[in-house]
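# step 3/5: fold
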Amino acid sequence: MRDVVRAYIEKYRLLTENRPVLVGVSGGADSIALLTILVESGYSCIAAHCNFHLRGDESLRDEQFVREYARKLDVPFLMTDFDTRKYAADRHLSIEMAARELRYGWFEEQRAATGAQAVAVAHHRDDSVETLLMNLVRGTGIRGMSGIRPRNGFVVRPLLAVSREDILEWLAGRGLTYVTDSTNLSDAYTRNFIRLRVLPLLKEINPSVKDAIARTSEHLSAAEAVYLHVVEEARNAVVEQGDRLSIAALMRYPSPDAILYELLKTYGFTRPVAEDVYLSLTKESGKTFFSSTHRLIKDRDYLLLSPLVKEEVREYTLTGGEKVWSGPVELSFEKIVIKEDFHIRKDKNIAYFDYDKLTFPLTLRTWKEGDWFIPFGMKGRKKLSDYFSDHKFSRLDKERTWLLCSGGAVIWLVHIHDQICCVFVLTSALSADHLVAFEHIHTLAAEHGMVIGGGESIGDALLIPNPVPAVHRLPVNGISGDTEYRVRFCDQRDIVPTRTVTG
């Protein structure tokens, strides 16, 4: 058997001989066989034992047995104690799951502390068969049908090539003793039930049922490799920059629901949630789904993913005295004296405001429910949420939209949507003697395809007879995340622009 185990280690490159191996040793037949074979094969081993204090004197017996056997082999011995029942109760876990978490957590701590190359555990072929049957009963995908893997991170399983029967025969032939966990004789645990009651029944159908299931597991492991290759291919085709999943690209695959689950699993989504997402693909946009780490929004043509973040400040103040202000967007300010030869620059990213009618500090914030404005040509208010809906803003587009506000009123909406730069300009006349100057600005703006008008949101004195704020959408080609915006604040003396809103 030792030669079979050595060959298995070499086949899957589980261990090298130049670094120590941390070996999990319970004292049972399997772990005693594993430690003995590795030591005899020339590996530098460290025996690691966990006392879970679940079986009274038996637990103490096991600890002492492993300690003595490690001394006999001249192997370093490490051990720890756990209050397993308390750990399980505090975290609402089964005893089995609690012991597993405690065991592997401590193993990894000791591996890192000792510089061991791996943690070797004593799972054998029968364990893999039992695991497959357990997963099958509970419901599983192709991964669950592949049994136990030879390697999982730093955890390696050199005994998967041999059966429990092989191990017992080898120990008997060597005259090696071991301890028996009395809980293994009870069918109260699922694994024990399968081992003690299900597999004997299956052996009545096929005496070689364990070998047959093991071969099936190997075939499914090969199929899994092909499956995962296709999943990675789909990931490259479906997931676009910014964690957007193209629905059209997804639907070109023969089993899009399976592909979707594999892609979403990366972001922490469970299978039931992934199934709900798939059912939403043919429904209206806007539905939101959550994992422990991410949020997914079903948009028209995409599934939009974004990380869940802690609540953060989403509002900033600007005094107006800044030359350059950097935040979630970047703004620069400049004052320019209005003279007769003043001309509005033909710049799609400049907004002009009546400096005297602004209330400082200004506020830059994200939009919230209830925000409104008065679109050009309308006398009534329009909710920003309705504007977003009319212009097919995704949920993420809305959240990435920033509002420049004066005295609580929205004076400029800064956002990038598709390839449209939207600028909201609200101005008012300073006084009657400056009406001509602002009419001049208004005329130039019209020539450049812009609209500047008065609005009740920043003052009562208006440039034009009726309070009609201006809204203008300017097409921009090839907008990127480095698009710049400028804002200008105007009074009788000068104009203040803000530059560079990077969105």
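# step 4/5: annotate
Residues 315-499 form one domain.
# step 5/5: archive (pending)
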